[in-house]
Design brief:
five-stranded mixed sheet, Immunoglobulin-like
Length: about 100
Protein backbone atom coordinates (compact mmCIF):
# COMPACT_ATOMS: atom_id res chain seq x y z
CA UNK A 1 0.00 0.00 0.00
CA UNK A 2 1.28 3.43 -0.97
CA UNK A 3 0.63 6.50 1.17
CA UNK A 4 1.69 10.09 0.70
CA UNK A 5 1.72 13.03 3.09
CA UNK A 6 -0.73 15.78 2.28
CA UNK A 7 0.32 18.81 0.28
CA UNK A 8 -1.64 21.91 -0.65
CA UNK A 9 -1.70 22.23 -4.42
CA UNK A 10 -4.10 25.15 -4.84
CA UNK A 11 -3.55 27.75 -2.16
CA UNK A 12 -6.03 30.49 -1.27
CA UNK A 13 -4.99 34.05 -2.06
CA UNK A 14 -2.68 35.40 0.63
CA UNK A 15 -4.83 38.51 0.84
CA UNK A 16 -8.41 39.00 -0.28
CA UNK A 17 -10.23 42.32 -0.28
CA UNK A 18 -14.01 42.22 -0.34
CA UNK A 19 -16.70 44.87 0.03
CA UNK A 20 -19.41 44.66 2.67
CA UNK A 21 -22.42 42.76 1.36
CA UNK A 22 -20.48 40.90 -1.35
CA UNK A 23 -19.67 37.19 -1.46
CA UNK A 24 -16.19 35.64 -1.34
CA UNK A 25 -15.00 32.09 -1.96
CA UNK A 26 -11.60 30.85 -0.77
CA UNK A 27 -10.12 27.74 -2.38
CA UNK A 28 -7.66 25.31 -0.79
CA UNK A 29 -6.95 22.25 -2.94
CA UNK A 30 -4.80 19.43 -1.57
CA UNK A 31 -3.38 16.11 -2.68
CA UNK A 32 -2.12 13.01 -0.88
CA UNK A 33 -2.92 9.34 -0.45
CA UNK A 34 -5.36 8.86 1.07
CA UNK A 35 -6.96 12.09 -0.15
CA UNK A 36 -6.60 14.76 2.58
CA UNK A 37 -9.45 16.13 4.66
CA UNK A 38 -9.62 19.96 4.63
CA UNK A 39 -10.60 21.91 7.74
CA UNK A 40 -10.97 25.69 7.99
CA UNK A 41 -10.37 27.97 10.97
CA UNK A 42 -10.65 31.73 11.43
CA UNK A 43 -8.02 33.44 13.56
CA UNK A 44 -7.03 29.97 14.82
CA UNK A 45 -10.50 29.02 16.05
CA UNK A 46 -12.69 26.40 14.34
CA UNK A 47 -15.99 27.91 13.31
CA UNK A 48 -19.25 26.05 12.93
CA UNK A 49 -20.92 28.81 10.92
CA UNK A 50 -18.54 28.45 7.98
CA UNK A 51 -20.17 27.46 4.75
CA UNK A 52 -17.35 25.10 3.79
CA UNK A 53 -17.68 22.35 1.24
CA UNK A 54 -14.46 20.36 1.01
CA UNK A 55 -11.77 22.62 -0.35
CA UNK A 56 -14.10 25.64 -0.78
CA UNK A 57 -15.01 28.17 1.90
CA UNK A 58 -17.91 30.47 1.05
CA UNK A 59 -18.43 33.79 2.82
CA UNK A 60 -21.86 35.12 1.91
CA UNK A 61 -22.99 38.72 2.46
CA UNK A 62 -19.65 39.64 4.03
CA UNK A 63 -19.72 41.91 7.08
CA UNK A 64 -16.96 43.51 9.21
CA UNK A 65 -16.99 40.48 11.53
CA UNK A 66 -15.77 38.32 8.61
CA UNK A 67 -12.40 40.11 8.45
CA UNK A 68 -9.47 38.06 9.72
CA UNK A 69 -7.04 35.24 8.96
CA UNK A 70 -8.55 32.10 7.48
CA UNK A 71 -6.45 28.94 7.60
CA UNK A 72 -7.03 25.77 5.67
CA UNK A 73 -5.40 22.59 6.98
CA UNK A 74 -4.98 19.41 4.96
CA UNK A 75 -4.55 16.15 6.86
CA UNK A 76 -4.73 12.49 5.93
CA UNK A 77 -3.07 10.69 8.85
CA UNK A 78 0.29 10.34 7.08
CA UNK A 79 3.14 12.76 7.60
CA UNK A 80 2.65 16.29 8.84
CA UNK A 81 -0.52 18.30 8.33
CA UNK A 82 -0.04 21.28 6.02
CA UNK A 83 -1.66 24.70 6.26
CA UNK A 84 -2.17 27.80 4.18
CA UNK A 85 -3.40 31.19 5.39
CA UNK A 86 -5.48 33.85 3.66
CA UNK A 87 -6.12 37.27 5.20
CA UNK A 88 -9.55 38.70 4.40
CA UNK A 89 -9.90 42.47 4.51
CA UNK A 90 -13.42 43.89 4.48
CA UNK A 91 -13.69 47.22 2.69
CA UNK A 92 -16.25 49.58 4.15
CA UNK A 93 -17.76 52.30 2.04
CA UNK A 94 -17.91 55.54 3.88
CA UNK A 95 -21.15 57.37 3.42
CA UNK A 96 -20.97 61.10 3.89
CA UNK A 97 -24.26 62.81 4.54
CA UNK A 98 -24.43 66.55 4.34
CA UNK A 99 -27.23 68.37 6.00
CA UNK A 100 -28.18 71.73 4.64
CA UNK A 101 -30.60 74.21 5.99
CA UNK A 102 -32.66 76.35 3.69
CA UNK A 103 -34.05 79.15 5.70
CA UNK A 104 -36.12 81.99 4.39
CA UNK A 105 -35.52 85.34 6.07
Amino acid sequence: MFSASPSITGVPDEKADVEIGKDLTLTCKASGDPHPHITWTKDGVPRSQFNASGYLLHLVNVQKKNAGSYMCTASNGYGDDVTSVSVVNVKCEEVLTLFTSNRVF
